[in-house]
Specification:
This protein is mainly α. It has helices at 2-6, 14-32, 53-70, 83-103, 109-129, 133-152; strands at residues 8-10, 47-48, 51-52, 71-73. Helix 2 packs antiparallel against helix 5 and helix 5 (109-129) runs antiparallel to helix 6.
């Protein structure tokens, strides 16, 4: 356990913060400009064991972003174009396409799945590329609760 923790240091990863802000752009637009047939605003309170899934999702999102931005693996090296970085870009592109389809009125299940899963995949792929297994755990839990919340609101 101690050897694992020695791989990590506190530091600031500005690329992780940029990734977070890029993914938040459509969410900010959606906050101010509702989409036609906006089913994402239904906000049904989905609970597991008496705990709000939305709250759990928010907690793990904060932990995930904090871990991605402030915990660095000493062995990850400089950023290069790898399979995982390409997966980040594809996931973000898919996310933006999902938002475009959503604003065009497509509220099909696959569009909601794109909006739910693709940002999570982007964060997870970034964590894997940066060898940040500490960030991978809250990322996985964020993905699960984010998915449950949106599926529960369909």
């Amino acid at each position: 356990m101690n050897n694992v923790l020695q791989k990590y240091t506190f530091g600031f990863d500005f690329r992780a913060l940029i990734l977070f802000f890029v993914i938040m752009i459509p969410n900010l637009i959606w906050s101010f400009v509702p989409a036609p047939n906006d089913i994402l605003r239904n906000n049904v309170d989905v609970s597991i064991f008496g705990l709000s899934v939305d709250l759990l999702s928010s907690v793990f999102r904060i932990l995930m972003v904090a871990a991605l931005c402030f915990i660095k693996n000493r062995n990850c090296g400089k950023i290069k174009i790898t399979f995982w970085i390409v997966a980040v870009f594809i996931s973000v592109l898919l996310y933006f396409i999902g938002w475009a389809l959503y604003y065009m009125g497509w509220v099909k299940i696959f569009v909601v799945l794109i909006l739910t899963i693709s940002p999570c995949l982007a964060f997870f792929a970034y964590a894997v590329d940066r060898k940040n297994t500490i960030a991978a755990l809250p990322c996985g839990l964020f993905t699960v609760f984010h998915f449950i919340y949106y599926i529960g609101n369909l």
